[in-house]
Design brief:
Helix content: 25-40%
Number of helices: 11
Largest sheet: 6 strands, mixed
Radius of gyration: 28 Å
Low-confidence stretches: none
Shape: elongated
Mean pLDDT: 86
Distance between the termini: 47 Å
Number of domains: 2
Order of helices and strands: EEHHEEEHHHEHEEHEEHHEHEEHE
Structural class: alpha+beta
CATH architecture of the largest domain: 3-Layer(aba) Sandwich
Length: 356
């Protein structure tokens, strides 16, 4: 890809060079330069390791491992080739390997990295990371997301690689980006054009939303089921999203925890949805046996027998299947017992954890 310089009244063309011809290598040059100035790839990255490979039975190493401001690890793979080779497959393996890292393990990796690249500075890896994540120090370690971002950096990318990346980005939780490095030699200087090409920065959010919509439409087209998920909200605290059946069960459990009698909830919901058993039954086996005995012909598998609520000499069970009654039921429970301060809201596609 040529670069044009305005030279008086004409355009002066400069053809792209090749890293190999310039004597620029992946590890000793590109990796070091990007490690020390990672902001040229993305301003929200902090490099925590170089040549990272803290796993058993593997000689593979991640070129650069970073963490972003939201607590996502970022695998950065570098190539100086014109097609990127098969770096996306390699990066996927690495992403899987680091997806289970805890915050303490990330701190240990960052501490080792600082010792190597800044040995003369007295730095506290944990404090630096907490500051980067805009968190205060506490006894409870922050959670590092299991969704790992991938950043592929190369002189160019082949059609097979770009097709794979575009396909991967259709899935929730996937964030794979391609950044192209194009070197130029101009008047004895080496210049580097750095561009994110997938997804285009100005269209990244749009492409993610479209990808999620396509997946959702395809999923609905195959079975026509409603995959809406809900957050239960307890006194302002938004709990992780749940599918419909678990959201109703969770809301009932939270109401009981906050002092609403199970019998009062039973007065609002029909016995076909929230059913009492005589006696207190504490194990799942006891609950299933009592359910079958007291309600002959009932399908035991359709009830949350592993989440029975025991109160005042009775055992209460929540039905598993709610269908279109989910949101009306959640609304009724919220409005009937406002003093408990237990509510709900729909999960957005960006926050939803996935289908049941």
């Amino acid at each position: 890809m040529p670069l044009y310089e305005i030279d008086g009244d004409r355009l002066r063309r400069h053809d792209a060079a090749h890293f190999a011809a310039l004597g620029i290598y992946e590890r000793s040059n590109l990796q070091r330069l990007l490690r020390d100035d990672i902001g040229v790839l993305s301003p929200d990255l902090l490099v925590i390791a170089e040549e990272f490979g803290n796993w058993e039975d593997s000689r593979r190493r991640i070129d650069l491992l970073a963490v972003d401001k939201t607590g996502h690890l970022v695998v950065i793979e570098l190539k100086r080739t014109d097609d990127g080779g098969h770096m996306e497959l390699q990066a996927l393996r690495y992403a899987a390997m680091v997806s289970a890292l805890s915050f303490d393990e990330v701190v240990a990796a960052y501490e080792a990295h600082l010792t190597k690249v800044r040995p003369d500075e007295d730095l506290d890896a944990r404090t630096d990371l907490l500051a980067w994540l805009d968190l205060g120090d506490s006894d409870e370690a922050p959670i590092i997301s299991s969704d790992v971002r991938i950043l592929l950096v190369s002189a160019d990318f082949g059609r097979e690689l770009t097709t794979a990346v575009l396909w991967l980005n259709r899935f929730d939780g996937m964030d794979v980006r391609c950044v192209r490095l194009i070197p130029y030699r101009i008047d004895g200087r080496i210049l580097l054009d750095i561009q994110q090409v997938i997804p285009l920065p100005e269209a990244a959010d749009y492409q993610i939303r479209v990808g999620r919509k396509v997946v959702e439409q395809e999923r609905r087209g195959t079975d026509n089921r409603d995959w809406t998920r809900y957050h239960v909200v307890v006194d302002g605290e938004v709990l992780p999203d749940e599918n419909k059946r678990r959201a109703v069960r969770l809301m009932i459990e939270k109401l009981v925890e906050r002092g609403v009698p199970a019998a009062s909830i039973g007065g609002v919901l029909s016995p076909g949805r929230f059913r009492p058993l005589a006696g207190e039954h504490h194990t799942e086996e006891e609950v299933q046996a009592a359910l079958a005995e007291q309600y002959p012909g009932v399908e035991v598998s359709r009830w949350f027998t592993e989440h029975a609520l025991v109160q005042d000499g009775r055992t209460w069970l929540v039905r598993r299947i709610w269908g279109r009654n989910t949101e009306p039921t959640l609304t009724t429970l919220r409005d009937t017992f406002p003093e408990a301060k237990v509510g709900f809201r729909r999960a957005t596609p960006a926050s939803a954890g996935g289908q049941p």
